[in-house]
Every structure is written in structure tokens, then in C-alpha cells.
Amino acid sequence: MTAPAFPAPEVLAARQKLVLDHFHDEVRQDWDDVLATFPHPHYELIPQMVIHDGNDAVRGYYNYTRTAFPDQDHEIIALRHSADAVIVEFWLMGTHRGFLGKVPPTGSRFRVRMNAYFVFDDTETLVCERIYFDTLTMIKQLLGGLDMKKPSNWLLGARAVRGLLSMSSAKPDPALTNTVAPAFTRAS
């Protein structure tokens, strides 16, 4: 496998603008504009081993996450370019105000460091947003915000743990588990 050529500066600038517009439109919750950044929306959430593929599935994902965290926002830490992707490190934060799957709202804030790979094909079309983050950090913050010294929070804490356990039993998407290692050529 030979490394692809690194794109020209104007290609990198166009990719970066598209990715920053994508982030901006997500915060504004303008889903039409976000979805316009790729002709076939495709998200891969690596911590959950879940894929949201296509317009309806991605809109459902947006609705689901903004119901759970209506004030979801981000702070970009760094943005880097690779031969086929823009890689963004960022803080994602929000307040747990709605159900996250079967996890009832705790009212807790979270702030989790993440990486997102915005992958482009050879026609410079955005084909995937692949997201990596530490789920345990988020869970600790959502549950850690509950004062368990108060008996009024015991039932909520138990329901939240039960909801998290039910989410952990979901089968991973085979497209994320059935991978093939690339064949690399050694430099002489």
C-alpha cells in the first residue's frame, strides 16, 4: 500500500471550510445545512460501535442526541489535515436534559475530549464522520453529578445505571468489527 499524495493547499482550505461549517451548523442545529456538507450522510460512532447511514438515520441521530443534550456545544482544540481526512480534536459538552436511550435525564453537565475524522474520497466528497471518545468519562460525569447522599437521587441513579447497562448489550455494527488490515510496503 502506497501513501496517497497530500492534497494541494487550496484543497486543504476547502476541506477545512467545509468541516468548520459542519461544526457551526451542528451547534445552530440547522440539520439541512449540516447534511448538505455530504451527499450521503454517514456517521461512525466508534465507542458505541454504531453507524448512522443515510439522511433519515443521521437526522434521527441528531434528534436523539439533541433531545438528550439540547444545549450541546463544542470547543475546537486542534484541526489537522491528512491525505484523505480532516482530523478535529474538540471538547464536546452539554447538559443531560432528556433521555439518552434508556438513561433518564440526570441534569448533569458533561465535557468530554473527542476526535472526529472527516474522511474525503478521491473526488473531495465528504463521505464519513468517524468519532472517537471515552464513553466512561462521559458516564462518570453524567452519574457523578448526582448527589447520592440525597435519597431522592437513589432511584434516578439506579434507573440511569440500568439504562446504561441495557445500552451496553447492543451488538456492534459488523462494518466496524469486520475490518481488513492494509498491506503496507516498506520504504527502502
TrEMBL record:
One of its GO terms (biological process) is polyketide metabolic process. It holds the Pfam family SnoaL. It comes from the Bacteria. InterPro entries: Cyclase_SnoaL-like (IPR009959), NTF2-like_dom_sf (IPR032710). SUPFAM superfamilies: NTF2-like (SSF54427). This is Ester cyclase. It comes from Mycobacterium lentiflavum. The lineage of its organism: Bacteria, Bacillati, Actinomycetota, Actinomycetes, Mycobacteriales.
